[in-house]
Predict the structure.
Amino acid sequence: MRNGDVDHGTEAGVRSPLTIDAAELRLVRLPLITPFTIATGTMHEKLFPLVRLFSGDLEGVAEAVMDPLPDYLEETTAGAMDFLSNVLLPDLIGKSFANPQALARHLAPWRGNHMARACVEMAFWDLWARSLSLPLQTVLGGEGSAIDVGVSLGIGTVENTLDRVQSHLDQGYKRIKLKIRQGHDLALVRAVREAFPGAHLTVDANCDYTLADTALLVALDDFALDYIEQPLAWDDIHDHAVLQSRMKTPICLDESIRTPAHARKALQTDAARVINIKVGRSGGHAHSVVIHDLCAAFDVPVWCGGMLESGVGRAHNIHLSTLPNFRKPGDTSSASRYFHRDIIVERLETTGGRMPVPAGPGIGVTLDHDFLATVSHAIQRFGG
Ligand code: OSB
Ligand code: MG
């Protein structure tokens, strides 16, 4: 059976359920062109679980975004490999789901592990969209052929940061996000703002501050930042509400928003005036769409975060970013900024700060199997 031949029924939106016949899990290791430093540490390579789900001749793919150590959030790569290979994937073999939301509900009883669950859920969305011969963006409710993109600049010297800001503005990137941490904040932001008075500038603290640093954080109000991302603890919404009541710069939450309930609480308490949605952090596309809609109801703009994903994760992020409340440039910059070679055939590169949405069914990109084989470890197959 070929892609377009799948019969999903034609009456009144009835679709036959999709059965997961087989799954594959592997660990992919990609070196980074340059190390990426944030408040919690330095990344030298990207190590990630890659999941493929199979139904007949169709397949869907996604990657998981946790780090080897629990330093961004509490999940770890080893823990996720264990949970995926011993629990999540074997359980899915032979099961049918009426739609991706049904699969998301099937995964809902598990506590935490939002990144591992997201990976499975996202692969099913790709499979589902392919079974309908539709781009992922269409089944998610998005539209448009390109999105606005910014860059996230890792921690470096002030001098070096000024050079990188210049070169990325020259490339047309629509927003520059500076990573900050204790002792590497005000002087950096002042230098960049003085050199680039009109730049769309933001900062991301990755949880490095507490309310004891309120005076320093309030001093950032002088630099016309579009927002300050996740200044306080990853598991704390309340203190962000307190900080927001004391500073003018909008707070944008990243780490603190792992479920729609987190988003609701942040919105209801004015703890976030912007939200960074990372589909791989939020349990998948279904929950990301709920967070997106909640934010729209509160007139709070969202943008799509990144986790230095390969082209597979980036493609998922780009499709999600075409929903209407993604009103700020996202972290879906060119793959060539991070990797010498990507694991997909297509090149995900920006022009003038715009990233084209990969066309075709599903996420619209294809695995480069020859290259993927050279960077894959611990390949496991389930079912089929
Ligand atoms: O906080 O947004 C973050 C990368 C790793 C861990 C945390 C974060 C980031 C980024 C991603 O800033 C940037 C990108 O994917 O291009
Ligand atoms: Mg962040």
In short: Residues 38, 72, 152, 204, 206, 254, 305-308, 331, 333 surround 2-succinylbenzoate (ligand 1) (CB under 6 Å). Residues 18-133+369-383 form a domain with the Enolase-like; domain 1 fold (CATH 3.30.390.10). The chain has two domains: 18-133+369-383, 139-356.
